[in-house]
Design goal:
The chain has 278 residues and is mainly α. It has helices spanning 2-34, 37-49, 53-66, 72-86, 90-103, 110-122, 133-148, 155-182, 186-199, 206-220, 223-237, 241-251, 264-274. 76% of the residues lie in helices and 0% in strands. Helix 3 packs antiparallel against helix 4 (72-86), helix 4 (72-86) runs antiparallel to helix 5 (90-103) and helix 10 (206-220) packs antiparallel against helix 11 (223-237). The longest helix has 33 residues, at 2-34.
Length: 278
């Protein structure tokens, strides 16, 4: 009976504590509705510092919801955007960044909001072997930072990330081109390498694209195009090991890297000589 009495007492205490906990939770929620903007904002900051960005974002959003016309509203919205991004909740980060830009376009934090919007795409860029649609969106958003906020502290970082994202797109074309080349589908491979040479000239993939064009054109017996691709490669990237390989491929067939014939590559060569290329 003593044991039974203790068990009953323990159960009563557990139920009482649970009821108190529930009451405190309800009181906390009610208290949040009654708080001014600043204390809620301070709670959000504390959550952020404690490493709880998801909860911090919720509280920052509550500041804007409960006090939309206060001086804290815009600050809370940009902080929510940052907290969402820290939590890798890119969809909500992007949505709150766009909301900030819609409601507060002329503030000093507008550049940061646009930068965070761009990062919400950029930080999702995967390896070049996967779909690169997100990369195009990152490029578009980064371009806005560069063009609309050129004097902001985020412009330099946006330029760097733009170049890296651009390189990703070129890498995708190269990967597909090499796939076709390995399978001796030379026409399809040439189309991919041509995209790199014409549209991604400033990326790190251009020298290899020119070498692969030499390979592909030689395989098809199109020596003029192969020579011209080699000439462009030598003119712009003579120190590259890709040029060494291209030179060897050409000379093995008693050919020289020089502009020959009329093709799309001849136009690229002319641009190179005029200094309009790269």
């Amino acid at each position: 009976m003593l044991r039974s009495g203790k068990t009953g007492l323990a159960l009563t205490l557990i139920l009482a504590l649970a009821a108190c906990s529930g009451a405190r939770e309800r009181n906390r929620e009610i208290a949040l509705e009654e708080l001014e903007a600043e204390p809620i904002y301070q709670q959000a900051e504390a959550q952020l510092e404690a490493g709880n960005p998801a909860r911090a974002a919720e509280l920052f959003i509550e500041v804007e919801r409960l006090h939309p016309y206060s001086e804290w509203a815009s600050r809370a919205l940009i902080m929510a955007t940052m907290a969402y991004h820290q939590d890798r909740d890119y969809e909500n980060s992007r949505a709150s960044a766009q909301r900030y830009l819609d409601f507060y376009p002329g503030t000093e934090d507008a550049a940061y909001a646009q930068y965070l919007l761009a990062l919400s795409y950029y930080d999702q860029i995967d390896q070049v072997g996967r779909d690169q649609g997100i990369t195009f969106q990152a490029l578009q958003a980064l371009r806005v930072v560069i063009e609309q906020y050129p004097d902001s502290e985020y412009a330099a970082s946006a330029i760097l990330k733009f170049d890296l994202a651009f390189d990703h797109l070129a890498g995708k074309e190269m990967e597909i081109g090499r796939y076709y080349l390995r399978r001796q589908n030379y026409a399809a491979a040439i189309n991919r390498f041509r995209v790199v040479v014409e549209e991604f000239q400033t990326t790190s993939h251009t020298p290899e694209a020119l070498l692969r064009l030499v390979e592909s054109y030689l395989a098809l017996g199109l020596t003029n195009e192969a020579q011209t691709a080699g000439a462009i490669l030598g003119y712009n990237f003579q120190a590259s090991p890709f040029y060494d390989d291209a030179f060897r491929l050409l000379t093995d067939q008693d050919l020289a890297p020089e502009a020959a014939g009329e093709s799309w590559l001849r136009e690229i060569w002319q641009q190179t000589v005029r200094g309009a290329w790269l």
